[in-house]
Amino acid sequence: MEKKLISVRVVVAIGIGSAIMFVLMRFVALPSGVPNTNLNLASAILTLFAAVFGPVAGLFIGLIGHALTDLTWGSFWWSWIIADAAYGLFIGLFRNFFKIEDGEFKFRNAVVFNVVQILSNIAAWVLIAPTLDILMYGEPANKVFIQGLTAAGLNSSVILILGTLLAFGYSKTRTKAGSLHVDD
Fold it and tell me: How many whole angstroms separate alpha carbon 82 and alpha carbon 86?
């Protein structure tokens, strides 16, 4: 029997997560005061989906969701699309530490979840996006690093609050391993 590279469940999650991310990025974004940098709820959705469905889902949701948003604005900003995809990948790689899908997301897991998301936001928005902006578009370093720091701070804050609440809520809907017993 062949092992599937990607499950139907993950493909469906990619489709739904990308669509939700697109809608939130496109229609529910608030300007931050820093040019081309917004406060949006999409980062919490990307984080939750990556934490539940894993690195492949996180990578593709970040890639597709952000690319669809850029498509509707008329131009692709590949450095930021790649950063969102990398962020989703990073979160997905740590999904087993969060135990959201197992219904075991507790305070300790929330601390790990938030440490990982903050470090992943720093990697994506303070390292990857600005570096690619400079290399791909010749953007001035001071501009892109301010944008990256702003994006990392805003995303981390949204995920700390909304992402953690979503993770607790979703975890409560999951059946804990060994919690079902046969009645006599």
Answer: 6
Q: CA nearest 84: which of 53, 47, 119?
A: 47
Would you place residue 36 in the very low, low, confident or very high pLDDT band (cuts 50, 70, 90)?
Answer: confident
Write down the residue that tokens 């060994």 correspond to.
Answer: 178
Q: How far apart are the first and last CA of the chain?
A: 37
> Distance between CA atoms of 98 and 113, rounded to whole angstroms?
6
- Please name every residue paired with 38 in a beta bridge, in sequence order, or none if there are none: 31
Cα of 101 vs its chain's centroid, Å: 16
The per-residue pLDDT for range 97-119, each reduced to its tens digit, is: 999 999 999 999 999 999 999 99
Region of 169 please: left (phi>0), alpha (psi -120 to 50) or beta.
Answer: alpha
pTM of the model: 0.92
Q: Counting every residue, how long is the chain?
A: 184
Residues whose CB is less than 8 angstroms from the CB of residue 93 and which lie 6 or more positions away in sequence, other chains included: 55
Kindly provide the residue ranges of all beta strands, DSSP E only, lying in the chain, ordered along the sequence: 30-31, 38-39
Helices 8-27 & 42-53, crossing angle to 10 degrees?
A: 170
The CATH code for residues 8-172 is 1.10.1760.20
**The two structure tokens encoding residue 69:** 């948003």
In this prediction, residue 86 carries a pLDDT of: 98
